[in-house]
Amino acid sequence: MVAQVCNLWLLVVGGTGLQPVAVGGTNEKIMTDNNDNVLPIIGMEIHVELATKTKIFCRCLNRFGDPPNTHTCPVCLGMPGSLPVMNKKAVEYSMKVGLALNCTIAGRTKWDRKNYYYPDLPKAYQISQYDMPLASDGYLEIPLEGDTTKKLRVLRAHLEEDAGKNVHDLPGCTGVDLNRAGVPLLEIVSQPDMNSVAEVTGYARAMQRIVRWLGVSEANMQMGHMRFEPNINLHITRDGKIYKTPIIEVKNLNSFRSLEGAVAFEIRRQYELWQDDPDGFTLEKLGKQNRGYDVDREQTVFQRDKEEAHDYRYFPDPDLMPVVVSSDWRDRVAGEIGELPLARRERFMTEYKLTFEEADSLTMDGPTGDLLDAVVEAGAEAKRCSKLLMSRGLALANEKNCTIAMTGIKAWQLADLAKMQDGGDINATAAAKIFDKMTATGDSPADIAQADGLLIVKDDSQIEKWIDDAIAANPQAVAEIAQGGKKQKKSFSFLVGQVMQASRGAAAPADVQKQLTQKLAE
Amino acid sequence: MSNKIDANLVRHIGKLSRIELTDAEVDALGCQMADILEYFDKLQELDTQNVEPMAHAVELSNVLADDVQRDSLTAEQALANAPAREGDFFKVPKVLGEGA
Ligand SMILES: [Zn+2]
Predict the structure, then answer these.
(1) Burial class (CB in 10 A: 0-12, 13-18, 19+), B46
(2) A3 pLDDT more than 50
(3) Contact between chains at B70 and A59 (C-beta distance less than 8 A)
(4) Does pTM surpass 0.80?
(5) How far is residue A408's CA from residue A393's CA, in Å, rounded to a whole number?
């Protein structure tokens, strides 16, 4: 924990010449040598594009990367007279996220118009939810360093439509592609409960994991499925007085790297500005401001606030009927969720006695954890299977840039392999070889072990024959053992090695040693 | 014009709505908007303490569609009414900076 704070510290005051004193603790408070206590206060809005087949209010395809303006219709073009109809799946996906975030799902919810002019918004209003969000008052528990977790409160999650895309690289004009206009977007708003860069990225990654786990979004950053808008300020205590810096919202971050860079930069920037003017650079005097992020310079940058940008004149959309969520409907959707990643990780640690690292890796996605449950169900030992998955499974997954489950390993194969190793039929080296081969071929581990001669030979007469051969072929080594002295040990190991080689690793070294000793004593 | 609606507010709303207003229109619209607000003041006198807020004039809910794809327009059809196009994009004046 202290090391982490030190890192953050370097980010906060790098280059100011102060002698930092970092103090750990749950809030990761930061102290300077002149006794400033600096606590970053960070909240975040996350926009998640939902992976419905069609858009939210029309049945145009919701798909990224196609030629411009090939998925539009009168509704998403904002033609007069067209009427939106709510996509049931978009509502249910949002309910799933809300439930997974421990939110209350509103029994009755409605949609509102948020009015503003922008070229990517053909209707000149965005349909969103203003005062009756679908989900509210939940939390997300995120993992922190050293097996600890922190509950971050979620204020609300509401459903709205995405805008189209402005294309800026055309000569002398801007092009508008409306394929994205009307893609369902879930906006998840946190409380300002995060106090460090690590907590912000932890929250963002946990959110990515949970929406993927639920299957409601691919959450692919390159495709813009997730966008972050953190708001950051500092509570600084100096001489018993608390100062609050202005709240800065950084708009439209579309990678974890930008998110991390923007928050770290803001913490440093605000502390420096406050030091120059402790009574002027404050929330009371300057209020809230928006900034953008320059990826190349790794800095947040001033963003001119459009005049009246926040005068959205929300009002209920008369084209859409309210949605009433009965307890039956909510329970049915809740029933589809199943076990969530952190609960499963906890279970793997208590029930299967996995380490945090093992349990964490195996609960990154649903199917990999399902695999472990299935092999245990099939009678294999959890810890052994986990070790196999963590070694060869993870290595193959990294090679192929996919999840462990996607490497092609089948539960029955893994269960058989684990049982063979635990039963002493194969050694660890053979198990690794078989793992790779059965993943590629789909063959049973027993067949592969047989075909490749990887089974440990328990047949004493076979081992005896190899020993006899080794003795016959190496009279000098035998003689040196008989003489005793300093060469005895080395020669014995040499003979064991010869036998192991003859068995192509299939004999158990302990058996060989035992029988060889007996043989030489005869 | 009532004290709730002054000329500046009318111009502000006009600007938000991208509508250019003459001074005469500001006066006329200001009076009309004041009348509307006055009418709402009248409604405020009603006791609505035990009445559920209404989001819609029609008593319907859960008008939902299944998530099944239907035909979209072609890019040609989508762009047919556009005042200007650049390739298969709608063409608009240069927008500086990102976000709305
Ligand atoms: Zn459409």
Answers:
(1) exposed
(2) no
(3) yes
(4) no
(5) 10
Residue A480 belongs to domain with CATH number:
1.10.10.410
Binned at pLDDT 50, 70 and 90, residue A321 comes out as very high
Element (H, E) at A465: helix A460-473
Yes or no: say if A217 and A191 are a contact pair by the CB < 8 Å rule: no
> Domain check: are A434 and A476 in the same one?
no
Residue B75 located in a structural domain: no
Mean pLDDT of chain A: 89
Judgement on whether residues A400 and A471 belong to the same structural domain of the protein: no
Both tokens of B95, joined, read 């927008």
> Which of B86, B88, B94, B98 is best to mutate for the A interface (most A CBs within 10 A)?
B86
Tell me how many domains chain A contains: 3
Helix (H, G, I), strand (E, B) or coil at A43: strand
A179-183, A426-430, A493-497, A518-522: which range is least confident on average? A518-522
* pLDDT (0 to 100) of residue A22: 35
Residue A422: domain span: 339-451
Closest CA to A93 of A305, A279, A337, A331: A337
B53 falls within a domain: no
Give pLDDT tens digits for A269-278.
999 999 999 9
* Pick from B55, B65, B68: CB nearest A86: B65
Tokens 């708009």 sit on residue:
A251
Q: Confidence band (pLDDT; 50, 70, 90) for A305?
A: low
CA nearest B18 in A: which residue?
A117
Other CB atoms within 10 A of residue A218 CB: 17
Tens digit of pLDDT for each residue in A228-248? 999 999 999 998 999 999 999
Where residue B25 sits, what CATH number does that domain have? 1.10.20
Q: Is residue B96 part of a domain?
A: no
ipTM over 0.85 threshold: yes
Contact (CB, 8 A) for B89 and A173: no
Residue A327 resides in a domain: no
Predicted local distance difference test score (pLDDT) of residue A309 = 56
Which residue of chain B has the CA closest to A184? B67
DSSP state for residue A54 in the 8-state scheme: B
Per DSSP, A468 falls in state: H
> Looking at CA atoms only, how far is residue A335 from chain B in angstroms?
20
CA nearest to A85, candidates A127, A123, A116? A127
DSSP label of A26: T
DSSP SS3 for B22: coil
User: What is the whole-number distance in angstroms between the Cα of residue A126 and the centre of ligand 1?
Assistant: 14
CB contacts, 8 Å: A322 with chain B:
55-56, 61
Structural domain harbouring B28: 7-44
Ligand 1 centroid distance, CA of A130 (Å): 23
